[in-house]
Amino acid sequence: MIAVRALLFDTFGTVVDWRGGLISRLDEWGRSRGIAADWPKIVDAWRMAYPSSLRRVRTGERDWAVLDVLQRESLLKLALELGITQLDDPAVDEMVRMWHELPAWPDSVAGLHRLRTRYVIAPLSNGHVALLVRMAKTVGLPWDAIFGADVFRHYKPDPETYLGAAGLLGCQPHEVMLVASHPSDLDAAAKCGLRTCYVSRPLEYGAGRVIEATPEPRRFDLMVAGLDELASALAC
Amino acid sequence: MIAVRALLFDTFGTVVDWRGGLISRLDEWGRSRGIAADWPKIVDAWRMAYPSSLRRVRTGERDWAVLDVLQRESLLKLALELGITQLDDPAVDEMVRMWHELPAWPDSVAGLHRLRTRYVIAPLSNGHVALLVRMAKTVGLPWDAIFGADVFRHYKPDPETYLGAAGLLGCQPHEVMLVASHPSDLDAAAKCGLRTCYVSRPLEYGAGRVIEATPEPRRFDLMVAGLDELASALAC
Questions:
Q1: Could you tell me if B104 and B201 are in contact, meaning their C-beta atoms sit under 8 angstroms apart?
Q2: How much is the average pLDDT of A104-114?
Q3: Which helix (H) or strand (E) holds B59?
Q4: A170 with B128: Cβ contact below 8 A
Q5: pLDDT in tens, A22-41
């Protein structure tokens, strides 16, 4: 691992708890506005719409748009499907912005502080720069640089994202490690020549819900249970 | 000023002391390698080659290249002109890398820490991302994001840089202020609709040497003598 100079982090799920964070925010927010809804169901369905909305941009079926725009469209469609009629435009905007201020997993902030003493650390996210800056400032994520999808105008797993971030950091692909809780993201990074670290986040989709199976040993360069464990594995 | 949400900073001269930093590093480095040279003269001539090497990229006379490449070419040409024959390839590389680790002006780090409590702060530099990350980590500049010229593949004063950074921050141009010690940089930003803050750095080119005259009052939105004074002006 001595050749690795920079660590890139998937963000939603790997560094922050999007599901727990959104549900608790929406719960409180809905109560204050008199909007009753099955928030866990909405959050899960909203998240499930994410891959296909990114795919439409990646295939060129639609023009480039940042995540806020895609999340907004998904939510409006979902509200229609679920018969939720109380969401006016400002309410939808507020819900979309909740993705900017998600809580970190308990090990994330301390782990990143240790890791940045020896490595360049940056998010490589399908979120956009403005979203990631807002998240970093509210949660206290000590990034050295911010790589949102809008820097490359490509969404992961397009190779332009992994190779683009390595290039901007002045690194060869093998000098960069992607850290992510999603095997598909790591597989795409590995194809580009990056090193890979799988972080298990068993609560990402809710207790007991498994969306992607735990990868077999040795599929990735490292497998850890949190960013503090990664810091220890890298002697930080 | 209440509408400003983000502050962008020119870096060389505005945040860090390139001349004093380079001269003192070269002095020590030259002694340790037995290379005697008029370092102030070389540093000044090297810096003077900078605008024309950027202009060749900006006009399309040459393909895109990051600052390290341009600085290397300028230095080789200069060594030839000045008859300095002791600079082999590794020595030239070391000299180019000195631009990555320049000392901050005494008010910079403390001023930026205060400013980031209320604003998004980021460099907008003709340096590249890798250079700016290295500089931030060695000097302790607490940036929220890093905008190098390679993000836009344009050098200042091309409008793509000012408008590109504002766009990635999710801001309208008037919500962003450029902070710089160079009136020409600020004029170009103002043409794009950004707010402007002039920082006087009387020692940038060496004591008593004036390259650009102090701008007249009210040419820019703010005029300050340092980043601590800017923090006070913006009530941070």
A1: no
A2: 98
A3: none
A4: yes
A5: 999 999 999 999 888 899 99
pLDDT value, residue B212: 83
pLDDT in tens, A137-183: 999 999 999 999 999 999 999 999 999 999 999 999 999 999 999 99
Sheet holding A120-125, edge to edge: A147-148, A120-125, A6-9, A176-180, A195-199, A222-224
Residue of B144, B160, B172, B175 to mutate, interface with A, max A Cβ within 10 Å: B144
Is the Cβ of A170 closer than 8 Å to some Cβ of chain B?
yes
Residue A2 clears pLDDT 60, i.e. is over it: no
Residue A140 forms contact with B (CB below 8 Å): no
Q: Which residues contact B41 (CB under 8 A, 6 or more apart)?
A: B82
Answer whether residue B184 shows pLDDT above 60: yes
Amino acid residing at A190: A
Q: Which amino acid is at B177?
A: M
Helices marked H in B159-205: 159-168, 183-191
- The one-letter amino acid code at A94 reads E
**Contacts A64 to B, Cβ<8 Å:** none
Query: Residue A235 and residue A228: Cα distance in Å, rounded?
Result: 11
Confidence (pLDDT) at B84: 84
Q: Which residues contact B148 (CB under 8 A, 6 or more apart)?
A: A168, B66, B123, B125, B127, B128, B129, B130, B131, B132
SS3 at position A81? helix
Between CA A21 and CA A102 the distance in angstroms is: 5
Q: Flag if A168 and B151 touch (Cβ within 8 Å).
A: yes
Q: Which value does ipTM take for this structure?
A: 0.94
Comparing CA positions, the residue from A222, A221, A195, A5 lying closest to residue A118 is A5
- Using CA atoms, how far apart are residues A134 and A116, in angstroms rounded to an integer? 19
A140 → chain B, closest CA residue: B144
Report yes or no: B101 and B138 within 8 Å, Cβ to Cβ. Answer: yes
Model-level pTM?
0.96
Measured between alpha carbons, how far is A68 from A59 in angstroms, rounded to an integer? 19
C-beta atoms of A133 and B145 within 8 A: yes
Q: Per-residue pLDDT for A225 more than 90?
A: yes
Q: Which of A65-79, A96-110, A209-223 has the lowest mean pLDDT?
A: A209-223
Q: Which domains does chain A have, with CATH numbers?
A: 6-17+103-233 (3.40.50.1000), 18-100 (1.10.150.240)
The whole-number pLDDT of residue B2 equals: 56
DSSP string, B93-161: HHHHHGGGSPPBPTTHHHHHHHHTTTSEEEEB-SS-HHHHHHHHHHHT---SS-B-HHHHT--TTSHHH
- pLDDT beyond 60 at A214: yes
